[in-house]
Amino acid sequence: MQYAKILGTGSYLPANRVSNDDLAKKVDTSDEWITTRTGIKFRHIAAENEKTSDLAVHAAQHALKSAKLTAEDIDLIIVATTTPDMQFPSTATIVQQKLGITTGCPAFDVQAVCAGFIYALTTANAYIKSGMAENVLVIGAEIFSRILDWTDRTTCVLFGDGAGAVVLGVSDEPGIIHSKLKADGNYLDLLNVPVQIADGQICGTPYLKMDGPGVFKFAVKMLSQVADDVINEAGYSQDQIDWLVPHQANKRIIDATAKHLGLNTDKVVLTVQDHGNTSAASIPLALDNGIRNGQIQRSQNLLLEGIGGGFAWGAVLVKY
Ligand code: ACO
């Protein structure tokens, strides 16, 4: 039996760091409102000439270095993103080209919005367990600032840009212990960006639309349920979880999930205050932060979980 193990992690944030007070100069909001409703204090915003693939490549280079591998060792690239460089080709193939990989390894994108990294990690795990890949680069990268209506205070204060990456390799012990993916397309109207390209025209609104309170209720319920399922199906108990590494959308959603799991806040990796919601990038960014600042140690059990538009959601139990 072979497992997928985390060999290394990396992350990248654009240089431009924007505070709540900076935002309050542009839209009718306040540091007090944003902090109490979401826990967010800062977010990073990509420069005009930065693309999602650029953020992804920086994070990937850090992850490769920490895994002590070179780009040529990678035999599969999966990029989770909702804000790709182009309609096509995939951002993963652009990352492959920018990393200088000439082996012809497969590369593709996964689209599950804020659950994208959980979907991508689960897919990479399946490739490794089935013997179809040995060293997989899994990246979550987003420039959400480009799909926000900067006049809509109910959404523009919530998101940020960034990228996080993980290198998974083969191991004879876990590694990824168990994972579960879920989706329910009936909730499409709660959160979407309805734009399409058709006949040379951009049709529909190219900005994120969200029913905030509706998303909040659904997220708390489904994240608690899928976290329970993954722990139970793996034969683990809640007290064996050393760290919750959640999608960083909103501190109140994270607190509710941690409370449901009986986890103290000192067992939760929290970056939402510094990054905002970076969608598919938020979990690998939090994971890399937790590892680099010494919170997460080798052999500890981590529960990663996330939910996003679709709705799509899931959780992964990992021994780091
Ligand atoms: N600044 C000041 N006031 C604001 C702002 C703002 N940025 N945004 C909204 N308000 C006002 C509203 O206009 C409203 O005013 P009114 O009562 O005069 O009409 C008031 O604040 C309350 O608005 P609500 O939407 O009811 O506020 P709520 O307490 O639900 O908080 C929030 C809104 C933060 C969006 C919350 O619903 C939430 O966190 N939902 C989850 C959304 C989320 O995380 N989405 C991320 C994408 S999906 C994912 O990643 C899981």
TrEMBL record:
Official protein name in the record: Beta-ketoacyl-[acyl-carrier-protein] synthase III
Species of the source: Neisseria iguanae
UniProt domain comment: The last Arg residue of the ACP-binding site is essential for the weak association between ACP/AcpP and FabH.
Lineage: Bacteria, Pseudomonadati, Pseudomonadota, Betaproteobacteria, Neisseriales
Top-level class of the enzyme under EC nomenclature: transferase
Function of the protein: Catalyzes the condensation reaction of fatty acid synthesis by the addition to an acyl acceptor of two carbons from malonyl-ACP. Catalyzes the first condensation reaction which initiates fatty acid synthesis and may therefore play a role in governing the total rate of fatty acid production. Possesses both acetoacetyl-ACP synthase and acetyl transacylase activities. Its substrate specificity determines the biosynthesis of branched-chain and/or straight-chain of fatty acids.
UniProt KW keywords: Acyltransferase, Cytoplasm, Fatty acid biosynthesis, Fatty acid metabolism, Lipid biosynthesis, Lipid metabolism, Multifunctional enzyme, Transferase
EC number annotated for this UniProt entry: 2.3.1.180
Region (ACP-binding): 248-252
Recorded catalytic activity of this chain's protein: malonyl-[ACP] + acetyl-CoA + H(+) = 3-oxobutanoyl-[ACP] + CO2 + CoA
Gene name of the record: fabH
